[in-house]
Queue: 2 jobs
Job 1
Amino acid sequence: MKRWAASLVLATMVLAAVSWERARAEQAIHSVVELFTSQGCSSCPPADALLGELAGEPGVVALTLPVDYWDYLGWKDTLASASYTARQRGYAEQRGDRQVYTPQMVIDGLRHAIGSDRKAVEAALAAEKQAGAMSVPLTLSSDGATVHVSVAAAPQGINDVVQAGAAAADDEAEKGPPKGVLWLMPVKRRERVKIGRGENTGRQVIYTNVVRGIMKVGKWYGREATFMLPQDIARPDGCDGYVLILQRGTGKVPGPILGAAKSPGL
């Protein structure tokens, strides 16, 4: 019996390792799609459904970021955050076009399209994939307590190990200005909401990969680096997984997305 139990434990460990190896193999992400949506917007449900489809596409990270600027129309969005509104406005500032609307999909931090316009969204995805904007691979692994995020760089780069929320070992004067920032987004995979008032009164809408927060993990200086996150921070209570995004720009004015990875199951 002891031998059988030991074998079972070993098999479980092997399966866990295999699942993470599988996750690594699936991290060839070529596009990140962010949908800025609102429960108070009657044009949004078709875009919410389209994002659900995109979430199943290989190589695509699809995220829902509900905004709060339509809350005055009679229904307060139950998933919205002012930080997502600020992120959308930051993208508009970066592009210089001031186009902030719902439903809006932003692809790789660069292009935007009406979120319900399938042809426009597919064209933007194809253009970004061809351009190869997502040029920095990210790899995830976990020991159950800690998530390790490996960020690729030039072969001659040196290794950096960065704890979440801590500065890198060398100072910025030595490394030069950062080339990007690594962001963590815990995600609720599926959320069904019955809307009681406003433009979508009586509708039940399913939201996919709803972002439940945005946290700065650390700066990336263009070299190979490993970042470490406690598992309970990466996936807090109420969340099903998490996404890591490497991005130029700042939290206030986000820039092009350089790379991304998602936890298994998203």
Job 2
Amino acid sequence: MKKLFGVIGDPISHSMSPAMHNELFKIYSIDAHYQPFHVSRGDLNDAIKGFRAIGIAGFNVTVPHKEAIIPLLDELDPLAEAIGAVNTVVNQEGKLIGCNTDGSGFVKGLLNQNQSINDKKVLIVGAGGAARAIYFTIAKEAPELLDICNRTPERAEQILNDCPFEVPSRVLNRQKAEESLETYDLIVQTTSIGMHPDIGQSPLSVHKLKPGAFVSDIIYNPLQTRLLKEAAVKGAGIQNGIDMFVYQGALAFEMWTGIGPDIERMRQKVLNQLGGLLC
């Protein structure tokens, strides 16, 4: 019998996950289908009841449900529990188990660019759900310094207070972060600033970026944000959000199937899909 997988969110029509996962099912001859499900906030409880009833094999979770879904699940893995957000659910013999592959996907994408974290000085821009997952996962890798720049310091302070891993950290406003930019080896941009259609915006001036720094922006439309373009002009290494998206998806696929998928085939499928969307 064909297994059903999917992704829930609102909005969801833009998601590239169905194309990516259905391509993998075809490559590995798995009798399964991955379907997007538009689920509004008020319908989340009914959607999960429905998934249980039909025996869905697994699904991804995106905005705005990553936190709200937690009480509707049977278990959380330790990282998802620490982060307080779920982006992947595995059905293990009828039990829905919540996991988080966002942070691990980001770190794997960094390693793919030959960027290590150990003993590095890192600045994370933003304090939303993605920033939280990335902060916790980077903190586990023992950086020398892990700061957060955010408009509202309370949200950033909450991340520092909740993190179970000991790491030197500060909360900075934009001005202080820009003044201190030459401190950092790695800068991770996790906000939506610079995303299509507002491609002229940037969350940070890179005027004081140090030579040899690496700048990663988790946005992938456009493939090069204003921040990345300006960082490249300053001689920095740059990375867009494709790596994180592909690796978090690969980790979810492996949880569901036991197969470590072909990353390059996944990347190519995503880039092909983006070809019709990029502006």
